[in-house]
Design a protein that fits this description.
426 residues, alpha+beta, Helix Hairpins, BirA Bifunctional Protein, domain 2, 8-stranded mixed sheet, 21% strand, elongated
Length: 426
């Protein structure tokens, strides 16, 4: 939840809907503040009336007049408190729809076209033939079963077979092993999350249409809380490990990595952005999450970006890093780096990882704080998250960058120990 003191900063995003939401929140908040002041005055008047009544003769006309006046005051206070409760609820709901404020280092921009390139790694593969897209390569090799996925679950679901399935499993282990070697604690979280968890990290209420909600009957033989969802990203589960907690400052930063299946009901027209394994309703991802102090969070963002880059470098995949501009920034993020891998079959770069510092935005919503010292007042932590990295899109990148003229796929050397020594998919 955005710190109300930073309401002007969020307008840097430049989106008309953000300005509209800020205006709506300010209207609720102004009414709430005004009513709160009126109630404070009424309560003071009631207290004064109480003091006056205590000094009057109960049989006097003045006593009856003062008693009636106090009843009127009490009635007005009761009505005002009811209205104040509604205004507080409306103000909070309005605040939940306002995104995070961009960090001062985030470049201004009107679209993703304004995202500056920070740097790139490696070179585009030089091919003496016309490169094919991954979906065509995988289908020709018999390892991407798109029709099977549709029969089982509908559009945007795919069955991986044989070497593609083994590559996906190997990538998960490769990524986790790499992150653990660099100080991350592995977590294996549930795939189902509560509404409160999604609200805590900012997916709800803003992104409700992208969620898969579970319709579970309530009864003695069923889950008591049916307000459950399939998780869209392990960021939700791992960040909310510390929901409603006050952490010891000496234990920060905390660095986690987690594999999880992710589920998103994303809308979008068919095309290059949705073909093959791109933008599936179910996909696999290794997630990185950090919980740290405000003083250290931006240094931790840089090291998180380096951790995601380390995965792609180990696999020998050419990519670039861009800094998201104000218009392209995610809802909960104060600053984000995107890693974009090169896909020669599409002649384009595609996002494979996003690394974001959410500052105290999620911590305020999920009530995650830390105590710097034993007697210090608790402060909100800063939370960070990043893909370390998306497994399906890594399969896509390997297929397209390592494709050969005969349609076979060379397995990156770093991945071969995780695939039983397999050197080529044929």
């Amino acid at each position: 939840m955005l710190d109300p003191a930073r309401m002007d900063d969020v307008l840097r995003r430049g989106a008309p809907d953000v300005a509209t939401r800020v205006t709506a929140w300010r209207s609720f908040d102004d009414r709430r503040r005004k009513l709160q002041g009126e109630l404070d005055s009424l309560r003071q008047a009631r207290n004064a009336a109480n003091d006056r009544i205590a000094k009057l003769d109960k049989k006097s006309s003045e006593f009856a007049e003062a008693r009636d006046s106090m009843k009127t005051l009490s009635s007005r206070i009761k009505d005002g408190e009811g209205l104040l409760g509604k205004l507080e609820t409306e103000s909070e709901q309005s605040l939940l729809m306002i995104p995070n404020a961009p960090h001062t280092s985030v470049p201004a921009g009107a679209s993703e076209a304004d995202n500056p390139v920070l740097h790139s790694w490696g070179e585009k593969p030089q091919m003496s033939f016309a490169p094919k897209p991954h979906d065509e390569l995988g289908k020709n090799l018999g390892v991407f079963d798109f029709e099977g996925g549709v029969r089982i679950a509908g559009s945007r679901f795919t069955v991986l077979r044989g070497a593609a399935s083994r590559m996906s499993r190997g990538l998960i282990n490769y990524m986790l092993d790499l992150h653990i070697q660099h100080g991350y604690e592995e977590v294996w979280p549930p795939a189902i999350v509560r509404r409160a968890s999604l609200r805590g990290t900012g997916q709800l209420p803003k992104l409700a249409e992208d969620m898969f909600r579970l319709d579970i009957p309530v009864g003695p033989d069923h889950v008591a809380d049916n307000d459950l969802f399939l998780s869209p990203t392990a960021e939700v589960q791992v960040t909310n490990l510390h929901m409603d907690q006050i952490l010891d400052g000496d234990t920060l930063p905390r660095r986690y990595c987690a594999y999880a299946a992710c589920f998103r009901a994303e809308a979008g027209a068919a095309g290059k952005d949705t073909r093959g394994l791109i933008r599936q309703h179910q996909f696999d991802k290794v997630e990185l999450v950090k919980v740290t102090t405000p003083e250290d969070s931006y240094a931790e963002l840089e090291s998180m970006r380096e951790a995601a880059e380390r995965v792609l470098q180990g696999l020998g995949l050419h990519y670039r890093v861009v800094t998201l501009c104000t218009a392209d920034l995610g809802f909960s993020a104060a600053k984000t780096y995107d890693l974009e891998v090169w896909l020669p079959g599409q002649d384009a770069y595609r996002e494979i990882s996003s690394c974001s510092n959410c500052e105290d935005f999620q911590a305020r919503r999920a009530k995650i704080r830390y105590r710097p010292g034993p007697k210090d007042k608790p402060r909100h932590v800063h939370t960070l998250n990043g893909s370390g990295v998306a497994v399906g899109r890594t399969v896509v990148a390997i297929f397209e960058q390592y494709q050969q003229s005969d349609g076979t796929i060379v397995v990156p050397p770093a991945l071969r120990p995780y695939m039983g020594g397999l050197e080529r998919i044929a």
